[in-house]
Amino acid sequence: MSQSAPAVQLRRARADELEACSALYEKVLKETFTWLPPEGHKAADFLAYALYEETYVAVDAGRILGLLAFYRPDNFVHSLYVDDRGRGIGKALLDHVQATADGPLSLKVQVANVRARAFYAREGFRVVEEGRDPDPGVPWLRVMRI
Fold it and tell me: What number is the average pLDDT over the span 29-46?
């Protein structure tokens, strides 16, 4: 598959799409965060955060292929989840949001998420902080697009 930008629409999610976004969030978490118990991945968590964040989607023929949740006051990417990986959708979402941000994007990535860490490194993100969530004690890296 090509790593070029997908031929999809990138835009802010509509309110009636947030349920579909939360389902994609839960599905991708369960598929990829295999080092964590799957019962900890809940669509309701995404919906709770969506009250305070801007959600952007990549849509093709009415299907949401990926989402990015953005907390604008801190230029912080809280969530980036793509169902159809390997098509450049994650990169396209990051670039789309970066174009509207008033500074460099940052995010936290779990240390165990090797694939995501490699992706963010390719996209120009560099480690600026290390930490550990108190529950369940998962180590993470805060990265910034430099």
Answer: 72
Q: 58-68: per-residue pLDDT in tens?
A: 999 999 999 99
pLDDT at 33 over 80: no
Identity at 91, one-letter amino acid code: K
Of 89, 103, 13, the closest CA to residue 51 belongs to 13
Which residues are registered as beta bridge partners of 11?
Answer: 57
pLDDT at residue 41 in the model: 64
pTM (predicted TM-score)? 0.87
9-103 falls under which CATH superfamily? Gcn5-related N-acetyltransferase (GNAT) (3.40.630.30)
Classify residue 2 as exposed, middle or buried by CB count within 10 Å of its CB (0-12, 13-18, 19+): exposed
Residue ranges of domains in the chain: 9-103
